[in-house]
Design goal:
alpha/beta, Ribonucleotide Reductase Protein R1, domain 1, 4-stranded antiparallel β-sheet, extended
Length: 386
């Protein structure tokens, strides 16, 4: 009798343990399902929030442009961020109207770079020679000629090789092979395909100026990118020129470099303002003698970077705008459906030659608005790559 009771209790205990195990298993599954549901809801809600952040990003961009235009109306011209428009949100005393949303706006003057299309051959030779000098310590102007010859052969339409250049036959023999576009450069990444700028195992001493053996960007490439623009068509604004460009413009005149740097940094107490209002200033005379690069003192083209964030969600807006064509009206900066962005030109096929480069005729409806800025490029949630 006792044996029967013991067996019955054992069965009941086993059933109870089994039921408890099932409950625990179901609880774990329910928790996992709940976690997955929460993650999915957070993921979906990010896109809903991003639409709201997108509208705020364009609002922040309009605030920045409004500040620039106000300074231009008051001062007549924009010379340097040190005038007071470097931080447009602080100047306008405006922040996001929605609690928990943060706005960030950064303005760069694209006019402080050398227009690539107006770079004289002799200046390019000197610039590349100076870059070679930084690597081996010896300056020889002829060191820059092979790079310029290869660059010019890459762009010209004939098949005649320059003294140190290469034409289509060279690139056709590479693995993989590709063809030079025989047109002006439109992207800094295009230098990766031009002989001499990327590292070449067969010519280690005469290559790798911009990209090393691992394909990484060299300091020379970063300097070149900071001093040259594919978008600027105006004289170089000496007020916003980067340090590397100032040194290049001054050449061997260290005294002129120090004087200009002291003025721009505000260390020269004799200067009434930390910028130049006229490119014909006597202190800039040596720069005009050293290089055949046209100098100016006015900001015309702006890169504006806007970031709007709320918690883990964020929206980035990058705009390149021209303020020098306000007389004919411009294009208002308003959100519109995202469109496909053309990728950088890849030189493994023959490419069509577009000379317009996004600067086509303006919509007559926008011209009537007399909008003070003209959009050159606009990107959402991606870098403005050129």
């Amino acid at each position: 009798m006792r044996t029967v009771l013991a067996k019955a209790r054992h069965r009941k205990g086993s059933v109870l343990i089994f039921v408890l195990a099932i409950i625990v298993l179901l609880s774990v599954l329910a928790m996992r399902l709940l976690e997955e549901t929460v993650r999915e809801m957070e993921h979906v809600s990010q896109f809903h929030r991003r639409d709201d952040l997108r509208l705020q990003a364009y609002s922040a961009l309009e605030v920045a442009l409004g500040v620039l235009e106000e300074w231009k109306m008051v001062e007549g011209q924009l010379f340097s961020p040190s005038q007071g428009w470097a931080n447009p949100l602080s100047y306008a005393e405006i922040q996001s109207p929605e609690p928990g949303v943060k706005w960030e706006v950064r303005i760069e003057d694209e006019t402080g770079k050398i227009p690539f299309g107006s770079f004289k051959e002799e200046d390019l030779v000197v610039l590349f020679a100076l870059m070679v000098k930084e690597e081996d310590g010896l300056f020889n102007e002829r060191d820059g000629e092979p790079f310029v010859d290869c660059l010019l052969d890459w762009q010209d339409k004939d098949d005649d090789e320059r003294d140190d250049g290469v034409e289509e036959d060279y690139y056709e023999d590479l693995e993989p092979s590709y063809f030079p576009p025989n047109d002006k450069l439109t992207s800094f990444e295009e230098f990766r395909h031009i002989k001499g700028f990327s590292y070449d195992l067969d010519d280690p001493d005469g290559s790798g100026l911009f990209f090393d053996e691992l394909g990484n960007q060299t300091s020379n490439f970063r300097h070149f990118r900071s001093t040259v623009s594919f978008h600027n068509g105006y004289p170089v604004n000496i007020n916003t020129a980067p340090d590397y460009l100032l040194r290049f413009l001054c050449g061997d005149d260290d005294r002129a470099y120090e004087e200009i740097l002291d003025i721009l940094s505000g260390k020269d107490l004799s200067a009434s303002e930390p910028f130049f209002r006229n490119s014909n200033d006597s202190k800039l005379s040596s720069l005009r003698k050293n290089r055949s690069i046209e100098l100016g003192a006015e900001c015309k083209i702006f890169r504006i970077h806007v970031t709007v964030s709320k918690g883990p969600s964020n929206f980035r807006l990058h705009a390149l705008l021209d303020s020098g064509r306000s007389s004919s009206g411009g294009t208002a900066v308003t959100p519109r459906p995202a469109s496909s962005v053309p990728s950088a030109r890849i030189p493994n096929t023959r490419t069509s030659k577009s000379k317009n480069r996004g600067r086509g005729p303006l919509d007559p409806n926008f011209s009537k608005l007399q909008y003070p800025f003209r959009i050159i490029a606009l990107r959402e949630n991606e870098n403005l790559v050129d």
